[in-house]
Write a structure and sequence with these properties.
The chain is mostly beta strands. It folds into three domains: 2-73, no CATH class; 84-122, no CATH class; 151-323, no CATH class. The chain has helices spanning 217-221, 297-313, and strands spanning 2-7, 13-22, 37-42, 45-50, 60-65, 69-74, 84-89, 93-98, 108-112, 119-123, 133-137, 144-148, 156-161, 173-178, 186-193, 199-207, 212-216, 234-241, 266-275, 282-289, 291-292, 324-325. The chain has a five-stranded antiparallel β-sheet, covered by helices on one side. Strand 11 and strand 12 form a beta hairpin.
């Protein structure tokens, strides 16, 4: 027998082994013991051709065994990722479909552990670093909610002082203490505003638990204002924050990051003078607690940002004096 190539009329190149035996059809050719060969009659000559074992299925590995014939072995689709469902598509082959981990809860971050295939639902963290709020996630919207606790826990307090102009000999005092509600030192951050809404001074005092500290409105808050005009009345805002490293206070950074969070524990009182008649000289002095208020994110950003501007660009002006030990009451000079 002789090996040769046959070019068929259809344009296919067939490789085969020709035998001397002539034929009219393939069944005229002697049988073969190799199940991977097929008899064919080409140009009246018997030829043995390779059998095609392609089953047109992308999910099998196709080969031919001379003793058995075609073998179509299913392929194994395994990407070694427990977070996919592995399957085989007869047309595309292996398909690795990600497992869907969705607990329908917008307050969790949903993921899959590739080692175990278990879904992990990690609660969203809504901590605003403010010990005076109850923080939680709204399961209907996925939004973080920061609900203030009772008024005494508010880190933000406000009051006014009046009748402080050059015509008046009366001062106003601010007295501060640390109730130790936060279990350590706190910073009393002080921001002074003129009636036309300008922040004219800021400063900060470190107050240890149960200590008593005081500020004079005229001497401390208005003694070194950013603007040359000294107003006759002011609004004073206080923010309580944790000191950096336990001892360092900065009114420009109060509550702006996790290192100096807003805290509870600041109790404050203030005095102010009142005129007994319209246009009359102040004669009545009252002392009342500061009013706890809600500190919005925009207000916190505004007053700390203005304080930062004062520190950077005020050439030393606008930095009020720090607290002194003890307490003051308003007195005529």
């Amino acid at each position: 027998m002789t090996k040769f190539l046959f070019l068929m009329a259809a344009g296919f190149l067939l490789v085969g082994t020709a035998f001397a035996q002539t034929c009219t059809v393939a069944t005229d050719c002697p049988p073969t013991n190799n199940r991977c060969l097929l008899n064919a009659c080409v140009n009246s000559q018997c030829v043995q051709q390779q059998r095609s074992c392609d089953d047109n299925n992308a999910c099998t590995a196709d080969r031919c065994d001379p003793n058995i014939g075609c073998i179509n072995t299913p392929i194994v689709c395994d990407d070694h990722n427990a977070c996919t469902a592995d399957s085989c598509d007869p047309v595309r082959g292996c398909v690795f479909t990600p497992i869907v981990c969705d607990d329908k809860n917008p307050c969790t971050n949903d993921s899959c552990d590739p080692a175990t295939g278990k879904c992990i639902f990690t609660p969203i963290t809504c901590d605003d670093f403010n010990s005076c709020t109850v923080d939680y996630c709204d399961v209907s919207s996925g939004a973080c909610i920061h609900k203030p606790t009772d008024a005494m826990c508010q880190p933000f307090q406000v009051r006014y002082a009046a009748n402080l102009g050059s015509f008046s000999s009366v001062d106003a005092a601010i007295n501060l203490t640390n109730t130790n509600a936060s279990g350590g030192n706190i910073c009393a951050n002080v921001y002074t505003f003129s009636p036309d809404e300008q922040e004219i001074s800021c400063c900060s005092c470190l107050i240890t638990p149960n200590a008593l500290a005081t500020l004079s409105v005229k001497n401390d808050l208005l003694g070194n204002t950013l603007t040359p005009a000294i107003p006759g009345s002011v609004v004073v805002k206080l923010i309580a924050s944790a000191p950096a490293n336990g001892t360092t206070c900065n009114a420009a950074t109060a509550g702006t990051n996790g290192a100096v969070p807003l805290v509870a524990g600041l109790a404050a009182w203030g005095t102010t003078a009142h005129a007994t008649s319209v246009g009359g000289a102040p004669s009545a002095i009252t002392e009342t607690p500061f009013t706890p208020a809600t500190l919005s994110a925009s207000e916190q950003s505004r007053i700390t940002g203005l304080c930062s501007f004062i520190q950077s660009n005020g050439s030393g002006y606008g930095i009020c004096k720090s607290c002194r030990s003890g307490a003051l009451g308003a007195a005529a000079k």
